[in-house]
Structure formats: structure tokens, C-alpha cells
């Protein structure tokens, strides 16, 4: 798998996690622990995307 393909796969996972966070947030009784876990995984993926793309993280 090339770096570009890997970045695209990570972007897809990132979008999937965003969708999961939105779904959990709109439930009548959202699970805050689940949301926190999803957000941490999403941030880890974003950091990996930035690392692989060689871009400096935004400030």
C-alpha cells in the first residue's frame, strides 16, 4: 500500500469516526465515555495523517 493510499484509508476511518460521534451525540442519552473514546481515536488518526503527509500540524 502506498503512502497516498494509506492516507486515504485513514481519512475514510476519520470520516467514519466523525459519523459515529455524530450518531452517539444525537441519541437521547449519549454515552459520554464512548464519545470521548471515539474522539481520541479520531485525533490519533488525524495525527497519523499529518505525520504521513509531512505537513506541520495547524496551530
Structure report:
With 59 residues, the protein is mostly helical. It has one domain. Helix content is 76%, strand content 0%. The chain has helices at residues 3-25, 32-53. Helix 1 packs antiparallel against helix 2. The chain is elongated, with a radius of gyration of 13 Å. The termini are far apart. The relative contact order is 0.16.
Low-confidence segments, ≥5 residues, pLDDT <50?
Answer: none
Shape: elongated
Q: Biggest sheet, in brief?
A: none
Our Rg estimate from Cα atoms comes to: 13 Å
Order of helices and strands: HH
User: Strand pairing plus helix content: what structural class?
Assistant: mainly alpha
| Number of structural units classed as domains | 1
Q: What percent of residues are in strands? A: under 5%
Q: What fraction, in percent, of the residue positions are helical?
A: over 70%
Please give the count of helices.
2
Distance between the termini: 30 Å
On the 0 to 100 scale, the average pLDDT is: 92
The number of E-state strands comes to 0
Amino acid at each position: 500500500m502506498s503512502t497516498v493510499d494509506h492516507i486515504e484509508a485513514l481519512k475514510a476511518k476519520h470520516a467514519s469516526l466523525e459519523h459515529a460521534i455524530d450518531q452517539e451525540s444525537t441519541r437521547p442519552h449519549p454515552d459520554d465515555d464512548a464519545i470521548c473514546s471515539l474522539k481520541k481515536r479520531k485525533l490519533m488518526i488525524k495525527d497519523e495523517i499529518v505525520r504521513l503527509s509531512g505537513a506541520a500540524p495547524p496551530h
